[in-house]
Specification:
Elements lengths: L21 H23 L9 H7 L5 H17 L4 H4 L6 H11 L2 H14 L4 E7 L6 E7 L10 E7 L6 H4 L3 H7 L6 H8 L8
Antiparallel strand pairs: 1-2, 1-3
The structure holds fe (iii) ion (FE).
Length: about 210
């Protein structure tokens, strides 16, 4: 049997302040993310899923049922933590290289991309995720929204970057004003992570 493990954050709890407070990050990682990992481990115990990797569970479990939901939320949160980086460490304040070219190809400008992404994040009704993804057939970039735990891997598209827009991601800091949370995301985006994902180096969740 395999036990899935809550990965450590790639930075300190205060690293995304003032945008995301220490209180929010501690709750989000230590309670919400941990809750999904613990629930997944209890659900798969003594089932065929017990021997599978997280990605295999996401691809094979019935969608929108508890095993899928907890596996996908486990993966999505790890991907989300890696989509961000403290300002002092990020080195790349804007997209670069192939990622920059791909963003301009799909959205004309970086500002155009940010505007469309922020709109999708603000418009998503209920709980979910907004993603920058690459269509593997056309190699073009798109912005997609997924509801609840849904995950792009299931649709055969490559995720590059994500933002969690469940209320637990912003309610402590911004109450109901999701658009303020979304607007602050850009200062902490880890463009190196997105660029690495574009080149095929998709970081595997633990
Ligand atoms: Fe979350």
């Amino acid at each position: 049997m395999s036990q899935h493990i809550l990965p450590s954050l790639p930075y300190s709890l205060g690293a995304l302040e003032p945008w995301m407070t220490r209180e929010t990050l501690k709750l989000h990682h230590g309670k919400h993310h941990k809750g999904y990992v613990d629930k997944l481990n209890s659900l798969i115990h003594q089932t065929p899923y017990d021997e599978m990797s997280l990605e295999e569970i996401i691809l094979q479990a019935p969608e929108n049922e508890p095993i899928f939901n907890n596996a996908a939320q486990t993966w999505n949160h790890t991907f989300f933590w890696n989509s961000m980086i403290p300002i002092a460490q990020r080195g790349a304040p804007e997209p670069f290289g192939d990622l920059s070219v791909a963003i301009q190809g799909a959205f004309d400008t970086l500002e155009g991309f940010k505007k469309e992404f922020a709109q999708a994040a603000t418009d998503l009704f209920g709980s979910g995720w907004v993603w920058l993804v690459q269509d593997m057939d056309t190699e073009t970039l798109h912005i997609i929204s997924t509801h609840n735990a849904q995950n792009p891997l299931r649709s055969g598209i490559k995720p590059l970057l994500t933002l969690d827009v469940w209320e637990h991601a912003y309610y402590v800091d911004y109450r109901n004003e999701r658009q303020k949370f979304v607007a602050g995301f850009w200062d902490f985006v880890n463009w190196r992570f997105a660029e690495g994902n574009l080149r095929g180096e998709v970081r595997r969740a633990a």
